[in-house]
Structures are given as structure tokens and as C-alpha cells.
Specification:
Layout (H helix, E strand, L loop, with lengths): L2 H23 L22 E3 L2 E8 L5 H12 L5 E8 L5 E4 L1 H13 L3
Parallel strand pairs: 2-3
Antiparallel strand pairs: 1-2, 3-4
Length: about 120
Amino acid sequence: MGGKHARSKGHRNERQVAKDLGRVLGFEDGEVQRTIQSRGGASEGADVVVEPFAVECKHYKKLGGLIVRAYEQAKRDAKEGFIPISICKGDRQEPLVTMGYADFLDFVREWRERGE
């Protein structure tokens, strides 16, 4: 599968991630959206940005080495002060979230300190 169908599948995944993050963070429907993406292959930033996260989304038939490449792209594209994460989904598979270990430890520490 390639071309338009693959792009559509990717865009649907990005919209779903934006919707799910918005719901969990308490935003109104539509407040968290995909960012504008360039067409020439040059990156314009993360696929979905919701402070403090810069999210790179991928949806492929098989993930393979995609997870590491997607996280590397998220790190390159994240603006200063944002936590780069990637969310990768294979066909008929649960999405996987990848973030740096130091960011994960900070996230867990903050969650624990809030008493939740």
C-alpha cells in the first residue's frame, strides 16, 4: 500500500491521537489538533503538539524498526521545553508510546508528588 491510501491512514491515526489526548487532558473536542505538515518530506515539527508533549505519530502495516526512527524524529522536531514522544501503531495492533527514560522518570516523579 502506498501513496494516498497510506497518507490517509496516517492522517486518521494523527486525528485519533489528538482526540484521545484532548479527551484525557480535559480539552473540548477539537481543541487538540494535528499540526500542518509539509508535502516535500521536510519536517515542519511534530504531528500533534499539546503542552508539554510533541508527538510523532506513525501507522504502518508492521512496525519493525519504525519505533526507534519515529522517536528519533520526535526528538529532532520537538521545540525547546517539549517532551518528545512517538506513538506507533501497526495494523490490528495496540498503539505503543515511546519516550526517553529521563522524561519518563520525571513524568512518574511528578505524578507521584501529586498523590495520584
